[in-house]
Amino acid sequence: MTGYAYRLLNVFTLDVTGGTKTNRTTIVAIRSASASLGGGKPLSDLQWRRADLGTWNTMTTTNVTIESRTVKINTTNDPWSNTVFFRILLSWATDPPATYSANLVFTLTVTTP
Question: Which domains does the chain have, with CATH numbers?
Fold first, then answer.
């Protein structure tokens, strides 16, 4: 029998605190610094999704965009936030008791269009 275990990650918030009133593109990305979850569990058994979307994504070791928005200080999308949900695929028949972990890395990239 296969099931899921869920964990909620806290909200991330982007708040422009300085600079000129210029449009900027913000990109929040996620990846794992670990190639596996430990205990013989592959990294691909860890999945994530944005709280406002229903599509689950497989965790990888390369940056994957969570969300991108244009921001302008104290106006457009300033601040903005979202929440990321995680789940891990578990098989009661084949997964031994273990502690699973992934070194998650969130990256913020800000560019001027």
Answer: 2-111 (2.60.40)
